[in-house]
């Protein structure tokens, strides 16, 4: 989804020629900035979820080694 937005922004930058008009350049750059900002927020949440999953699996594995049947 993010890649298609970036491609759409790049396409809007290129459709007016080599440089395009300043409003279209500004709109394209704002679109790219928005995609990067949203991507950073999504990646922050994704990293937290991966770390929580690693911790949960490790705890369950250690408990299983010690003989506790959790699941």
Tell me what the structure shows.
- This protein has 71 residues and is an all-alpha fold.
- It has one domain.
- It is built from two helices and no strands.
- α1 runs antiparallel to α2.
- The longest helix is centred in the middle third of the chain and has 44 residues.
- The mean pLDDT is 83.
Present the secondary structure layout:
Elements: H1 2-14, H2 22-65
Helix pairs in contact: 1-2
What is the number of E strands?
0
For this entry, what is the oligomeric state of its chains? single chain
Strand content: under 5%
End-to-end span in angstroms? Answer: 36 Å
Low-confidence segments: none
- Report the principal-axis shape: rod-shaped
Q: Which structural category fits the helices and strands?
A: mainly alpha
Order of helices and strands: HH
What is the average per-residue confidence, as pLDDT, rounded to a whole number?
83
Radius of gyration: 22 Å
Give a quick rundown of the structure.
With 71 residues, the chain is mainly alpha-helical.
Task: Name the descriptors.
mainly alpha; 80% helix; 0% strand; 2 helices; rod-shaped; 71 residues
């Amino acid at each position: 989804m993010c890649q298609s937005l970036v491609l759409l922004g790049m396409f809007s930058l290129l459709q007016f020629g080599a440089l395009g008009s300043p409003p279209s350049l500004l709109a394209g750059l704002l679109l790219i900035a928005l995609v990067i900002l949203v991507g950073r927020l999504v990646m922050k949440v994704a990293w937290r979820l991966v770390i929580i999953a690693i911790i949960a699996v490790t705890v369950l594995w250690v408990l299983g080694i010690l003989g506790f049947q959790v699941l």
